[in-house]
Every structure is written in structure tokens, then in C-alpha cells.
Specification:
Strand order of the largest sheet: 1-4
Shape: elongated
Helix content: 55-70%
Structural class: mainly alpha
Strand content: under 5%
Number of helices: 41
Largest sheet: 2 strands, antiparallel
Distance between the termini: 51 Å
Number of strands: 4
Length: 984
């Protein structure tokens, strides 16, 4: 570390510039614009750091490829630095759009970056439309178009270099040290197209190539994480998974209408060759690898470029375009000349029937060339200022824009038959991309406003992230900076570890536990571990029971209530009666007869009549959905309307708020459930529109019921089983009344449904119900000629509430699984958080769709309907995204409350940031007496709500709730979440 002072300062400045760039691109493109020292410092940030967090500017780092030392004021980077400045952009913004302008600055960096994304989407959509319009034109040599595109790109790039750099461009462009690196990348891009052509040559049709090419989103995520050591959170992984599945469903719908006129529900698998699929996937990996390596070079992270001479190492866009296009022109030109002179076919150029040289160009050929040239420049801009992942996501959005406009306008591929499904899937893809790009940034802004720093496991320190990316002569500077970090940052900075705050566990307790475990006997340690495993297995056994009981309940109920042998509503009556018996027995076991009399208090029972009515109506609509032909998976997917309905209604019933990230997940959940119902309805006929409508009404009434119950239980202090007795009494009453309602609906239908009314005759067995029906006088009538085994069937008719219950064991299995599910649900809610229950619900849908439905319905497996397969996988992912976003915000608020109430010094008292002065005074400016750390100081949801509304509720520890809730509401509102945390 013994370096001259000037070299030391220069090295520190270079590391600061590299760290600023890494904070913008190394983690997630424009995803996390957090300075590196935010990890270690929550307060006492300098004005320069606050300005850099608010006004994110691009560093001007021209490479030696710009020539020698290079002036930072010249070139496109210098101009971008001035035009991308957010503070100057607001000068031209209308007064009505200042809020949107601020949102763009926070999530995209500047308005110019946002406009560049919009321009790229439009140009890429135009390029795709030109490709589709041009089609397989046999009069044009496709290689000539590629050669002309690269030639014009080189020419335009050279003109820009001459206009901006003048004579200095000679040393910049004619730099073979940079050129040979781009030659390798151009070779990878040529290999991508060659492998794709080989896949087509092996028998894979163009439709499958188009579908497989959209796997570039998860591939780009994986390659970027490996090359740049980018760390993605659960929100990003969930968003990419939803986006990939959404674009897969969208493309499958379009492809099958392209090939079969939308008449075939199942996608054709005959044309798929396993070798061709592998080759096309390999081509996608090679292409993503090429562009990711380009990103590493253009951002100055390439070890070879870093080790080269010169102080400036970040490539400039115009030079990158010239080098890359020239190398591609060289490779494509050789193949083009060979194809045209030898008059032989090739995989890239097509058969020998293709015309040599240029062929006969048309207007659309010239338009395609123009679109490709503009696309090349904008691609390099997106790669430099954002990331390869952002570039891929933008291409997906451009593809949606092109197909959503051109297909309905030009009436392509029977768009009218898939219009509703396509228009519902497209927003889910765009919203998933938005969650990926800005979701985590929104969460972290709220965390910083609350004074909660991100965990060290999610964002490494600057020296750790720069390790291996810097040349050896700068690693010494990095070590010097690490050793002098406290001097550069000031002596007033808080500790960088923050372990106690993040983990909420005192160090002394952890060390004592470690010493105790180290002194324990090995046999005792083994027994302790075995006991922990047993407890863990017992804990998660309830989750397994929850998943299996819910899946069995849905499937068995569908089988029993759609059989036309039993009265569908009779199963709800029996379930309510069985639940009442179990709840009353449990109450007597725990509280004796006094508890049973308390549970049957008429006044208390009357208070539970309203939620009991909603509960019975929800079960009634579920039975009607099955009776109308809805499958178990379709009914469950449509019933997921429960989550967005509960979120909307809780705004007025309970006064709760949700941040925009949760709303996006709810919109995706709603649309994916609706699309699944439409696909299940229009395809194999497993469900009807009336059945899906009843399933939606069941989910809606269930959401209302849960909110009414939540509001009712705020004033109730009795145990869960006592309240369950009261709820089941009312449920049994209303389910009995709905027996008559279902019968009246069955008689009023056209044609009539006598199986819905318990006073009508019906066959006594499932075999007889398929062979004929019952007359009004109770005589059985065969549908056709009397079969030879009529005597063996011995078909008879009967009527009553529980008629037909002895026909099959499925009815009793549905009853048992319903009772078990109702009790296991309470156990899961008690032991786990809402995010675990959401994941369990998603797993239940997968078990139902992939296991029980094929097993019970004898449907083919694996599932051949690729569109419905992708959509059904999106449903649990969107629900998990909503729950995880809510869980993160809850954790941030709880940590902020604990940090504001439990500080040991003046710095810690101010560490809460947004907590305000009231919170500091509650504990004392110097962390005075009466302030206890850990979980002892906490604010309940009711106190937080009272604080948000101006109440003055104070908990037993002396923490004024008004200091917490308004601060949380301000933090959530400043990050675009409205008043999300005010009611949390």
C-alpha cells in the first residue's frame, strides 16, 4: 500500500467510479441504484451521497479505444452526461407530470433512459413486423440483407466518429487490441445463427424455433449472474418465471392458430425433434453469452481491457458499433461471396435456388435494412446503459407490441378466436417485466426511508464485488482504500457490521449458545439434533396435510357433486354438521360443558350469522360450479379471485393499504386465473362458462366472508374452537335453506336440471345415471334400447336430501377431506406466515392439476396443452409474489420500529431516519432507561392503525405509536406505495 499520494487518490477515484457503475449494473441493471456505503451507513450520509442517490448520472469513461487519454468532455458519453441529468430534465416537464417525472428518475435513472427504452421497443417492433412482412421471399438473397445492414452500420458509425472525434478517430477505430475481442463476439453471434439454421435443417419448424427463442430471458438471468456475479432476489426470480411462462402461453396460442386455425386444442408435438430442440437452445445460450460479453467490454469490466494501458476503459457506443459491425460484415461477407460465386446452397443462405448476390429487392427489403441499422445502435445503447437482461426484457415487450397491433389489424392467424386470451396474457408479461426491473428498487427505497439497511447477504461490499474484476495494479489501491475506509468516511460513521440490528439477536446470547454447544456431550448433541429434526418434521407435516387435504377436497367434491346422483348441496349440509360436531366436541374437551354453553350463547351466535351466511353462499356457488361442469383445477384457479377481491374490499372494510408492487402481483393473478378458465372452457369442454362464473362468485363471497370475520373477531376474545361452533351453527342453518334455492334453480333452467332438487327422483347409482334418467313418478327410463345387462344393473330411482350417498366412496372421501381441511387450515395459519400458506396453495393447485386430475379423470399425462400448462404455473407464482412483497414490507416496518425504539447511543436514536423526533424522545436521545431491545418493544397492528389515523395509543413500553405509523406511511408514499404502511 505504499503508493504515492497522487496515485492513491487516482486509484480511489477510479474505484469510486467503478463502484458507482457496479451499483447500477452489477446487481440488476437499473434495478438497484444504491451507493455501496448505504450497506454500512444508514445515517450521517454526506450531501454528495444523497445527491448521487437521487440524481443518478452516467460516468464518462471512454476507453483507450477512443484514443490515448481521451477527453471526457468529448464523445457521446460526455453529451449523455449532460442530457441525462435528471435535475435539468424536470425543467421541460409540464406541471401536471412532475410526479411521473419523479417516478421515472427513481426507477429508470433519467427521462432520457426511459425514452431510449420506448424508442427501442418501437424500433424492435418495426423490425419484427418487417421480418414477418418480408417472409420467406425466394427472390431475395437473405445474406445480402445482412451484409448491407452491417456495411451501413459501419458507415454510419464512422461518420459519427469523424463528426465527434475528428482525426482522433483514427487511433480509436484502428485499435486491433479492441478489435480482436469484438471478432470473438461476432464469431459467437454467427455461431448462434448457424446453430439455429441447423435446428431448422434437422426438422424443427419455424414455430418451435420462435417459441424456444423466448427462453432467452431465464438464460440471460443465469449468464449475467455467472459473469457479473449479480445477485438476484426472490422477487426477480419470481418475476422472470412469470414472464417466461406468460410469453410461452402467448406464443403457443399464436403458433397453434398459425398452424391449425385454432381448431386443435393441443399443440402438435410431431414436428419436434429432440436434437433440433437441443441445438436451438444451445444457439440461444451462445447468443446471450455473446451479448453479455459485449456488455462486460462496453462497461469496462473485461479483465483484458482493464489490464491494458490507459486510464479510461469504458467503451463508447459508436466505437462499439463500428468494431462489432465490421467483424460481422467480415464473417457474413465471406459466406455471402462464397455462396454467390459457387452457386451452391448453404444452411445460412438457403438452397441453391436462392438468387446469387442481391436478387430482386422490394420496398420491404429496404425498410428491413433501415430497421436493422437503427436496431443495432439502440441495442448497443441499451447494453451499455442498462444490461443484457433489460435488453432481453425489452425485446419481449416489443414482440408483444408488434403482435398485439398487427394481428388484429391484419386479421392474422384467426386472431378473433384467441383475442380475449391474448389480450389478457399480454399485460401479465409487461407487468412481470416491470416487477423485475423496478420491484426491488421500490422495496429498498421504502426500507431506506424507514432507516432499514439491506442485509449484507444481498449486497456485498464494494471491495468484495470488485475482487477479480480489477487488474493487479489496482488491487493494491483497493486494499489501501479498505484500510483507510474509516478515515475517508469520517469518524462519526456507525459500525459496518450491523449484525445485531439485522438479525435481532444479541451477540452475547449467540456466543453463550455457541460455548454451551461446544461443551456439550456428543451423544447429547446427537439427541438434540434428532429432536430438532423430529420437531421440524412435525411442524411441516401440517403443511403437507394442508396441501393434500385441500387437493383431495377439491377433486373428490368435483367428482361427487357433478355425478347427478347426489344432491350437490347435501354435501355442504353434511360438512357443516360434521364441522359442528367436531368443534363442539373439541370445546367440551378443553372447556367442559361451560364452554359449550358459552359457545351456544344466542347473542353470540346471532353476531356470527352474517359471516356464516357468506360462508354458506360461498360453498353453495362452489357446488353449483361443479354441478355445471367445472373441473376441479378450473374451479380452484377461478377461485383465486379471492386474493384481489379481498385486497380491494379491505380498502373500504378494514382501511388497509397495499403498495403498487402488490397490486401488480394481484393483477397478474387475476388475469392468469381468468385465462386458465377461458382455456379450460374453450378447449376440451371440461368446464362451462356458467361453471366458471359460479367459481368466481364463490371466490368473491369467500373474500367478503373473510373480511367480515376479521372485523368481527377484533372485538372477540373467545378461542378459535368456540367461535368455530358459532360459525358452524349459522352455516348449518343457511346451508339447509340453500337446499331449496338450488332445487328452484334446477327446475327453472332450460333444459331443467332435476338432479339439483332433492324432491325430484334420480338414479341410485352412477352406472344407471349414465344409462338413463328417472320420470316424475319415479320410474327409471333407459336413454336408448334396453341394454343386455339391464337386470344386472337393477336401476332404481329415489329422492331425498341424502339420496345416492351409498353409490360411491367418493362422497364420504369428500366429506372427510373437507372436515380435515377446515381444521388444518387453522393450524397452518397459526404456525406459519401468509407467504407459506400462499406457496402451499400454489403447490395444491399443481398437485391437483398434474396428479389428481389425470388420475381421477383418466386424462393423458404429461399434459399436452402447453398454453394451459404455462398459465396454470403462473397462478401460484403470482400469489407467492404478492405474499412475498407484503412479507418484506412487514419485516421492514418491524425492523424500523425496533430500531427506533431500541438504540443505545445518539447515532442509533437517529438511525431510524424516518421514525421522527417522537420516537427518539420515547426512548431518550441518549438511549435512556426504559428502552429495551429485541422483541420486547413492538407495536400491534391496531396501534399502528390508530397512529395512522391520528390516534394517541401508547403501548406498555412507552412507545408512541404515532411516531411509527405516519413515518411508515410517508416512506411508503415517497416510494410510490401510497399509504401502504399506514394501515399495516
Amino acid at each position: 500500500c505504499e503508493l504515492p499520494a497522487t496515485d492513491h487518490v487516482a486509484g480511489i477515484q477510479h474505484l469510486q467510479r467503478a463502484g458507482s457503475t457496479l451499483d447500477q449494473q452489477l446487481i440488476l441493471g437499473s434495478w438497484r441504484h444504491v451507493p455501496a456505503n448505504v450497506v454500512h451507513h444508514r445515517s450521517h450520509r454526506s450531501n454528495r451521497e444523497r445527491r448521487s442517490e437521487r440524481d443518478i448520472e452516467e460516468e464518462s469513461d471512454p476507453d483507450e479505444c477512443l484514443g490515448g487519454s481521451g477527453s471526457s468532455s468529448s464523445g457521446m458519453s460526455g453529451s449523455d452526461s449532460s442530457t441525462d441529468r435528471p435535475s435539468s430534465a424536470g425543467k421541460w416537464t409540464p406541471q401536471c407530470c412532475l410526479g411521473f417525472e419523479g417516478w421515472l428518475r427513481e426507477h429508470m435513472g433519467s427521462r432520457n433512459k426511459f425514452l431510449s427504452i420506448v424508442a427501442f421497443v418501437i424500433i424492435d417492433a418495426g423490425r419484427r413486423e418487417a421480418e414477418e412482412w418480408n417472409g420467406p421471399d425466394v427472390d431475395v438473397n437473405p445474406m445480402s440483407i445482412s451484409v448491407v445492414v452491417h456495411f451501413l452500420t459501419v458507415a454510419v458509425g464512422l461518420m459519427l466518429c469523424w463528426a465527434i472525434d475528428g482525426r482522433a478517430m483514427v487511433g480509436t477505430v484502428l485499435n486491433f487490441h479492441c478489435l480482436w475481442r469484438w471478432a470473438w463476439i461476432a464469431g459467437l453471434m454467427l455461431a448462434q445463427f448457424y446453430l439455429q439454421a441447423v435446428g431448422v435443417h434437422m426438422g424443427l419448424n419455424a414455430s418451435w424455433v420462435d417459441m424456444l427463442s423466448y427462453t432467452n430471458v431465464p438464460i440471460a438471468l443465469l449468464v449475467s449472474s455467472l459473469i457479473f456475479k449479480r445477485k438476484y432476489g426472490k422477487l426477480e426470480v419470481l418475476a422472470v418465471a412469470m414472464l417466461t411462462l406468460g410469453i410461452g402461453a402467448y406464443i403457443v396460442l399464436r403458433v397453434r392458430c398459425m398452424e391449425k386455425g385454432c381448431m386443435e386444442m393441443y399443440s402438435s408435438m410431431d414436428s419436434k425433434k429432440s436434437g433440433g430442440v437441443v441445438i436451438v437452445l444451445l444457439s440461444t445460450v451462445v447468443g446471450i453469452l455473446a451479448w453479455t460479453l459485449s456488455e462486460r467490454i462496453v462497461k469496462g469490466f473485461s479483465p483484458g481491457v482493464l489490464a491494458s494501458r490507459g486510464n479510461h476503459r469504458a467503451e463508447v457506443i459508436r466505437v462499439m458499433v463500428v468494431h462489432l459491425a465490421f467483424c460481422q460484415l467480415l464473417f457474413q461477407g465471406i459466406n455471402w461471396v462464397a455462396h454467390s460465386t459457387m452457386h451452391k446452397g448453404s444452411i445460412l443462405g438457403g438452397t441453391s435456388e436462392r438468387p446469387p448476390w442481391f436478387g430482386f429487392w422490394k420496398l420491404r427489403s429496404y425498410l428491413m435494412v433501415l430497421a436493422y441499422v437503427l436496431h443495432m445502435f439502440l441495442t448497443c445503447y441499451i447494453i451499455k446503459h442498462f444490461s443484457t437482461v433489460t435488453w432481453v426484457l425489452t425485446q419481449v415487450v416489443a414482440s408483444l407490441l408488434q403482435t398485439s397491433i398487427s394481428d388484429p389489424v391484419l386479421h392474422r392467424y384467426d386472431f378473433s378466436k384467441r383475442a380475449m386470451q391474448s389480450f389478457m396474457i399480454a399485460p401479465t408479461i409487461v407487468l412481470s417485466a416491470l416487477i423485475f426491473q423496478t420491484g426491488r428498487l421500490n422495496v429498498e427505497r421504502i426500507q431506506r426511508r424507514l432507516g432499514v439497511r439491506p442485509p449484507r447477504t444481498e449486497q456485498a461490499s464494494l471491495p468484495e464485488r470488485l475482487h477479480g474484476l480489477l487488474p493487479s495494479n489496482l488491487r493494491r489501491v483497493m486494499r489501501c482504500r479498505t484500510s483507510d475506509e474509516s478515515t475517508l468516511q469520517g469518524s462519526s460513521s456507525p459500525s459496518s457490521s450491523g449484525t445485531d440490528l439485522e438479525l435481532n439477536v444479541p451477540q452475547g446470547a449467540t456466543q453463550a449458545k455457541a460455548r454451551k454447544s461446544g461443551m456439550a456431550d456428543p451423544m447429547a448433541l446427537a439427541k438434540s439434533r434428532m429432536l430438532d429434526v423430529t420437531r421440524l418434521a412435525a411442524k411441516y407435516a401440517s403443511v403437507i396435510m394442508y396441501i393434500l387435504s385441500q387437493a383431495c377436497r377439491e377433486n373428490f367434491s368435483q367428482k361427487a357433486q357433478s355425478s347427478q346422483v347426489i344432491v350437490p348441496q347435501s354435501l355442504n349440509v353434511a360438512t357443516a354438521f360434521a364441522g359442528l360436531v367436531v368443534a363442539a366436541g373439541s370445546t367440551w374437551w378443553q372447556h367442559g360443558w361451560q364452554g359449550v354453553r358459552q359457545a351456544c350463547n344466542p347473542y353470540k351466535v346471532a353476531k356470527f350469522l352474517l359471516p356464516a351466511a357468506f360462508f354458506a353462499v360461498s360453498a353453495f356457488f362452489g357446488s353449483m360450479a361443479f354441478a355445471m361442469g367445472a373441473s376441479a383445477a378450473a374451479k380452484d384457479a377461478a377461485g383465486r379471485i379471492y386474493t384481489p377481491a379481498a385486497a380491494l374490499l379491505s380498502r373500504w372494510i378494514l382501511g388497509k393499504f397495499y403498495m403498487w408492487l402488490e397490486w401488480l402481483a394481484l393483477v397478474i393473478l387475476t388475469l392468469s386465473c381468468t385465462v386458465f378458465g377461458l382455456l379450460d372452457t374453450s378447449g376440451s369442454g371440461a368446464a362451462s362458462l356458467m361453471g366458471i362464473t359460479c367459481a368466481l362468485l364463490s371466490g368473491l363471497t369467500s373474500a367478503i366472508n373473510s373480511l367480515v370475520m376479521e372485523r368481527l373477531m377484533r372485538d372477540e376474545t373467545d378461542s378459535y374452537i368456540v367461535q368455530s361452533v358459532r360459525l358452524n351453527i349459522g352455516s348449518l342453518l343457511f346451508n339447509g335453506l340453500l337446499l331449496f334455492v338450488m332445487g328452484w334453480i334446477g327446475d327453472a333452467e332450460h333444459p331443467p336440471r332435476p338432479d339439483l332438487a332433492f324432491w325430484n327422483y334420480r338414479p341410485m347409482s352412477w352406472e344407471c345415471s349414465q344409462a338413463g334418467s328417472c320420470a316424475a313418478d319415479g320410474a327409471f327410463l333407459f336413454a336408448g334400447p334396453e341394454p343386455s345387462n339391464a337386470a344386472e344393473l337393477a336401476c332404481a330411482c329415489g329422492r331425498g336430501v341424502f339420496v345416492g350417498w351409498g353409490a360411491s366412496w367418493v362422497v364420504y372421501a369428500a366429506l372427510a377431506s373437507g372436515v380435515v381441511y377446515s381444521w388444518v387450515t387453522g393450524l397452518v395459519v397459526k404456525q406459519f406466515s401468509s407467504i407459506y400458506r400462499s406457496v402451499a396453495d400454489g403447490i395444491m393447485l399443481l398437485v391437483l392439476y398434474f396428479a389428481l386430475t389425470p388420475l381421477m379423470d383418466q386424462t393423458p399425462f404429461p399434459i399436452q396443452d402447453m398454453a394451459k400448462l404455462c398459465v396454470v404455473l403462473m397462478v401460484p407464482l403470482s400469489g407467492t409474489t404478492f405474499s412475498y412483497a407484503a412479507w418484506e414490507m412487514q419485516q421492514a416496518i418491524e425492523t424500523a420500529e425496533g430500531a427506533g425504539a431500541c438504540t443505545g447511543d445518539d447515532d442509533g436514536a437517529r438511525g431510524g431516519g424516518a421514525m421522527g423526533e417522537d420516537s427518539s424522545r420515547a426512548c431518550g436521545a441518549d438511549g435512556g432507561e426504559g428502552c429495551e431491545c429485541g422483541n420486547d418493544v413492538r407495536a400491534t397492528s391496531s396501534s399502528a392503525g390508530a397512529g395512522a389515523s391520528g390516534g394517541a395509543k401508547v403501548d406498555s413500553r412507552g412507545l408512541d405509536s404515532r411516531a411509527v405509523a405516519p413515518a411508515a406511511a410517508r416512506a411508503a408514499g415517497s416510494a410510490g406505495a401510497g399509504g401502504a404502511m399506514g394501515g399495516a
